[in-house]
Amino acid sequence: MSVAPESPKQLTVRTVPLHDGRPLLAHLPEAAPLAWLRGGEGLVGWGEAARITLPAENGGSGGSGVQRFGAAARWLAEVLARAEVTDALDLPGTGPVVFGGFTFAPDSAGSTLVLPRVVIGRRGDRTWLTTVGDGPGARPADVLREVRPLRPVGRLAWRDGTPDAGQWRAAVAEAVARIRAGALDKVVLAREVHADAPADIDVRTLLARLSRDYPGCYTFSVAGMVGATPELLIRREGDDVTSLVLAGTRARGGTPEEDARLAADLTGSAKDVEEHRYAVDSLRATLTPLCSSIDVPDLPELLRLANVQHLASPVRGTLRPEVSTLDVVAAMHPTAAVGGTPTPTAVDLIRDLEGTDRGRYAGPVGWLDARGNGEWGIALRCAEITGPRARLFAGCGIVAGSDPDAELAEADSKFRVMREALTDGT
Ligand SMILES: C=C(O[C@H]1C=CC=C(C(=O)O)[C@@H]1O)C(=O)O
């Protein structure tokens, strides 16, 4: 477990209104930017007042027996206990805020939470600045310095990941065979592709393109995981929670007629409706004991994004008072949109057939404030950025009626999000 060595004993946290109408991204410096943005609102942050990076849990190589969500909750409680907060706004996202990303698998190291030194947030017409620390550098005038302009990514060299496209197709066929033999109902299989840039990638460039092209998605950047996910695991404000379940996908059409045909094909497809139902059923089963009331629509709606269209079910609930946000996140992960049904069998099959560590892909990503308000998505349509390297991920829900070639094409349409964000001139 690593914690930022400079963590001070006492954390002085101040939130003040900010009268600055510029886009939030315009404030972000290039080094280790943190972001959670949707439609111009959200949070950006930088610097590290405190940080935890968790090791693999028991069972993995080098596993430590630390349960990652529980360890994160304990760390957060300790950090918040040291915070002296002055918060003039008292809104979701004001006061101390941590950004976080958890690994998909328990035996994978790297779940990370960061308390930034500076956060700028926006909700409706209100913008605020939160600083952590007492030094002269914590004054708004010092914090809001000019940042370097965004850098282009440069010419990329693309490589297939492991498994490659052919091997992944075979893995999908194997999964379909196991599902037809009755071993499980659904599994989500993912693959990766890699891109090498000529220099360190300016994550802000990717964030700017993602939030421009996917304004309805959650554009995020947390400790190197960068993407624009359409899938909201949980938003909490007070005791109210909302979630958006996605499963079932078609590409967008090149013409309005083709688009409508693909949409009708999706909503009328028994295979996709079944795939979606597994995801809704697993969410309902997980949320019901945590909520005093829950509202799940009978039928999914259509969610249209620039690259794909999905079957989508918005779910609302009221949390029981004793339940923490990280309890909910831990209980919901992995949903059937990224794991499968039944979950334990699906997760075992993912390990057998993918043969690679997903890292924080398909894990919960988001932010949390000291009152328990927060937004957590599932890290999809994303890439892990390490210096000049990008590792992109995309996965597809496999059920008895899945066709490996169609799934390969669907994964490609999901890769488009990050491929285009990484490509200059798009
Ligand atoms: C696993 C991914 O998407 C999930 C979310 C929505 C629709 C999905 C699908 O139709 O297969 C996937 O379950 C991904 O984008 O990598």
From TrEMBL:
Q: Which UniProt keywords apply?
A: Isomerase
Query: Which reaction(s) does the protein catalyse, per the Swiss-Prot or TrEMBL entry?
Result: chorismate = isochorismate
Q: What is its EC number?
A: 5.4.4.2
Name listed for the protein in its UniProt record: isochorismate synthase
Domain Chorismate-utilising enzyme C-terminal as annotated: residue spans: 167-414
Taken from the record, one Pfam family name reads Chorismate_bind
From what organism does this protein derive? Marinitenerispora sediminis
Source domain of life? Bacteria
Which InterPro entries does this UniProt record tie to the protein? Answer: ADC_synthase, Chorismate_C, IsoChor_synthase
